[in-house]
Amino acid sequence: FWLKLAPKPKHQPSLCEAGKRVFAAMVIKTELCHFTEYRIYPGRGQRFIAKDGKVSFFITSKVDSLFHQRIKAVKLRWTQAWRRMNKKGKVDESAKKRTRKAAKFQKAIVGM
To answer: How far is CA 97 from CA 69, 89, 92, 93, in A?
Structure first.
């Protein structure tokens, strides 16, 4: 004989006050690469601890190598430091400086 078990209920999202379904986002702890400023997800990257105790976390061995060769991140086009220095990427349109055009107007001629 077989017992018929009730089907497992699928995960239901919680309901908020208005009755709308709310899905909780999964939070993953990420760190920033010391050199490139890219996000490093768990299981990636390597940590370097200097003699003075300063901890650096690098996304790849390439970045680790560049750091130890004392190559500046600002000089590499693919790093966030270079993009920030050269004003690339996210720029608010309102933040851009606008040049004012001089208004033309007629002056009255005095003394005739």
So the answer is: 38, 16, 10, 9
Low-confidence ranges of the chain (pLDDT < 50): none
Q: Is 93 helix (H, G, I), strand (E, B) or coil?
A: coil
What is the per-residue DSSP string for 44-81? --EEEE-TT--EEEESSHHHHHHHHTT--GGGSTTSHH
- The predicted pLDDT at position 10 comes to 65
Tens of pLDDT, residues 82-112? 999 999 987 565 566 777 888 888 888 887 6
Nearest to 82 by CA among 73, 91, 69: 73
Mode of pairing for the β-strands spanning 46-49 and 39-40: unpaired
How far apart CA 112 and CA 110 sit, in angstroms, is 6
